[in-house]
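Troubleshooting log. The previous structure file for this entry was overwritten by mistake, so regenerating from the original sequence record. Sequence copied from the archived sheet and checked twice against the printout by T.R.
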Amino acid sequence: MVSRTLHVDARVRRGDFVLQVALDVEAGSTVAVIGPNGAGKTTLLRAVAGLAPLDAGLIAFAGTPWDDPATGTFLEPTRRRCPVVFQDYRLFPHLSVLDNVAYPLRVRGGPRRVARAHALQTLGRLGLAELAQRRPRQLSGGQAQRVAVARALAGTPHVLLLDEPLAALDARTRQSTRVELRSALAAFDGPALVVTHDPLEALTLADHLVVLERGEVVQAGPPRDVAARPATEYIARLVGVNLYAGAVAPDGTIRLDTGETLRAIGDPQSQRLRPHDRALVAVSPSAISIHLHRPDGVSARNVWPATIRGVEHLRDTIRIDLDGRPPAIADITPAAFAQLGLDLGAPVWLSAKATEILAYRSDPPPRDAPA
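Regenerated output below.
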């Protein structure tokens, strides 16, 4: 039995920008591609959809080439069975929801009665049957996005592509639609590729993350691993972790590139750190404690002075931006913030237990992405 894997080894040049990405998406799994603006996310999606031909490499599904410049093979987008769910839905305004969802089968020559019956079944599976006779203008943003997903699934696609699927929704609608979209993706038995700039969207929708920067994959793996051990400053900011680069000193501490020293535990999932190894140090904002005076009796901790340069209220916590050596962000409760009487410009002391600081190699062996 041929594996229904989407294989991508894409090289696409657009002026001075070059996208070079290799990944495999297995049937029944969802891979989220995330990265800053200009990283190449949309170019990758367009290449898989057949809207941006490769300059080199190979895109194939279940062993069948879709785009292979070496042999001159190029399968037109309409023949790939690879629909794209866009952030602006792109529903036909003059058609009912039912006929929008039936459209992919009608285009392939299916009888209207059969196409509509299949569309109604798809709508029912996604909990949208009551919307069947409505027009797109009568739908909320969340409903319209779910109908767009239903239309893509009704065409029995080989591969499903989603381009910033929740970007056009307000915060409240985005939260509920995210849960429903996750269920729809879990029920899809083919490979799914989601392009997004939203870390929560990527972490909740995908089984595997691929992070792009400047057209290249800088990290790939399960969401939990990427969040726990970010490989770049961009990823660290994305998941809200303090990240420092340095080298292992002879005594086992990490000498940061900026001159400071931190004591940290090693990463049990990576190679053992040795003196002079390059290392990254990740510190959760919740692992950093704030003190008004230098704390005593904390020899097992890392202690350093800082100044408060920013304060942000995040739901149940207060996030504090601290200018120190090294700089840091720390999360404390509103009660602790009030008790300490903190304010912008206030001098404070920071501490973090070595057992709550994770150090790991910054140049790990290459990992296949994704499996």
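The chain is about 25% helix and 35% strand. Archived copy saved in two places this time.
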